[in-house]
Amino acid sequence: MAKTLFDKVWDAHVVKQLEGNIDVLYIDRHLIHEVTSPQAFAELENRNLPLFRKDQMVATPDHNVPTENQHLPIKDALSKHQVDTLIENCEKFNVELYGLGHPFQGIVHVIGPELGVTLPGRTMVCGDSHTSTHGAFGAIAFGIGTSQVAQVMASQCLLQTRPKTMRITVNGELPTGVLAKDIILYIIAQLTAAGGTGYFVEYAGSAIESLSMEARMTICNMSIEMGARGGMIAPDQTTFDYIEGREFAPQGEEFEKAVAYWKTLKTDEGASFDKEYTYEAADIAPMITYGTNPGMGIKISGNVPDKLGEGSQDSFRKSLDYMGFNPGESLLGKEVNWVFIGSCTNSRIEDLRIVADYVKGKRKADGVNAMIVPGSKQVEKQAIAEGLDKVLTEAGFVLREPGCSACLGMNEDKVPAGEYCVSTSNRNFEGRQGPGARTLLASPLVAAITAVEGKIVDISKHLN
User: Fold this and answer.
1) CA 90, CA 429: separation in Å to the nearest integer?
2) Which fold has domain 286-462?
3) pLDDT digits (tens, 9 = 90+) for 150-161
4) Domain at 5-277: CATH code
């Protein structure tokens, strides 16, 4: 029987089928950080349970860490407590930890791929919704709750109901200035923030296949923002080239054997999906959000809609009131106080190169706080080796140390109340970047141009 990519990976990991359409699913890799692991470790201790397979775990602090002076003690008491607790638990249970100062430290969804921990055909989980990032490699990856974190720690398995499948195909050549972030924001705007609920999504088509691995990670990262359980892209030569030679990837003959298997991880001709959508790349333009969920997005040259499709008009009006926008309004010319380039969505070396390439020889506008935060120590090291740090600094950007930073208000990098931030992160919820902060999601290129102009502009007029 013809199978989808999702079916092939899922079926290979089913340990046992239970009544009620529930599967016992084996988990290959478990990623943990300081926010959702303390309660899970405490549960193991309270129930006197051992850690089942510690060698299949990787830990790093990312959400709470400061992005300045990481060599000094953390000032915020709660953040310090959470990071210290992760250190203590990893020492107690003998779990590999890439702590502050370690050359592998960074955002958990950045370091997994760059270290070769993320591989095609694997099942991967983390107590973080954006675990879907790793699906870019043809892995089944999804976020789990704290009780499930404990379940994986104790058994290396999860009880899971098999999700439905969806395929989203994007064909054709992308217009100039359109990046992966624009693709996924466009898709979510078409389907809404709940359009993928209950589904695991496979992205396909010539436009997707033409993307780099880092761009593919951006798309899979935001699958969760349309309600999907996760996103996947079939591995191909681009995938294999990215993985080869990485720290924990198979080496030599083992790598060749792995590639032979990975080449089988694609949807069979004739395999069926529960739902399918197809889009033309030519219809996608640089995007920006105007509301308080990622589905509230428009082409940057477009206008805020008069109403939100079939959604609640009360929530639509509430969202516009929070953002200070009006139905039918254009965002062009809107002054911006902050630009944040970072997060597990857009903090990789490719993202930093895009920004540096545009701002080289330019200067950010007065009154704009332009913050750029690499996703890992390795990205930071590479940026310095390529001289990107000098380009960014000369343009007036502040290059920070690795962490989740201003993606969410759990650390010191917050956007002040009432101020606008064009952000390359993944969520624009009320207060996401700080109490009262107003977030507009966009690509690294849109963010870079906004920083230079000091306002939202039609970027097509600023590209050669």
Assistant:
1) 32
2) Aconitase; domain 3 (3.30.499)
3) 999 999 999 999
4) 3.30.499.10
- Rounded to 10°, the helix 444-453/349-359 angle is 30
- How far is the C-alpha of 61 from the C-alpha of 49, rounded, in Å? 24
- Helices 38-46 and 146-155, axial angle in degrees (round to 10): 50
Contact call for residues 23 and 17 (beta carbons, < 8 A): yes
- Predicted model pTM: 0.97
∠ Cα 299 202 2 (to 5°): 145
d(C-alpha 113, C-alpha 241), whole Å: 12
DSSP 309: T
Which part of the chain has CATH 3.30.499.10? Answer: 5-277, 286-462
310, pLDDT greater than 70? no
Give per-residue pLDDT as tens, 107-144.
999 999 999 999 999 999 999 999 999 999 999 999 99
Tokens linked to 170: 């994007």
What's the rounded Cα separation, in Å, for the pair 421 and 436?
11
Are the beta carbons of 190 and 298 closer than 8 angstroms? Answer: no
